[in-house]
Specification:
alpha+beta, Nucleotidyltransferase, domain 5, two-stranded antiparallel sheet, two-stranded parallel ribbon, 33% helix
Length: 158
């Protein structure tokens, strides 16, 4: 018997043939926008319905100090930061991944931890993804604190 049969589970090769490209809310793979401070290790990660310049600018204005230096990749939506934030980019499309201190390795490292952390929950709905991202953001932001400081910051008790 050859070919796919009714009731047969798909082979791993078939499951791997998913549509490529950037995730969208409509494809049930909402994009996640992340920022991390290299000085304080503070992490901000949140899902989005789209990755437009307007959305990036809104999140940057809300979370980034005006005098901060922003590093990003060559995704065109970051062009909206011109004249508002001091920013520099690396051109991943041309094979450039770092130029001195200009790199996105810090946030890519956070995403490399986020993906397997989310996979433990087996099927996160896009409507609840913001809650999982908020929990991950909290866990990553308090990871370097000692237990007493962590308890005070979480529960407000001494």
């Amino acid at each position: 018997m050859r070919g796919k049969k009714e009731g047969q589970t798909p082979r791993a090769q078939d499951r791997a043939k998913k549509e490529g490209g950037r995730g969208t809310h409509q494809k049930d793979k909402p994009p996640i926008i992340g920022m991390v401070s290299r000085e304080t290790d503070e992490v901000v990660i949140a899902p989005s319905t789209d990755v437009t310049g307007e959305d990036i600018l809104g999140r940057a204005v809300k979370n980034v100090e005006p005098e901060a230096l922003v590093y990003h990749d060559d995704f065109r939506s970051y062009g909206v930061l011109d004249g508002i934030f001091n920013h520099q980019s690396v051109n991943h499309s041309a094979g450039e991944y770092a130029r001195g201190d200009v790199h996105t390795n810090t946030i890519e490292g956070e995403f490399s931890i986020l993906r397997p952390w989310l996979s433990v929950f087996r099927g996160v709905s896009k409507e609840k993804l913001f809650l999982y991202c908020a929990q991950f953001q909290l866990l990553r932001s308090i990871r370097a604190m000692d237990m007493t400081t962590r308890a005070v910051s979480l529960f407000g008790v001494a």
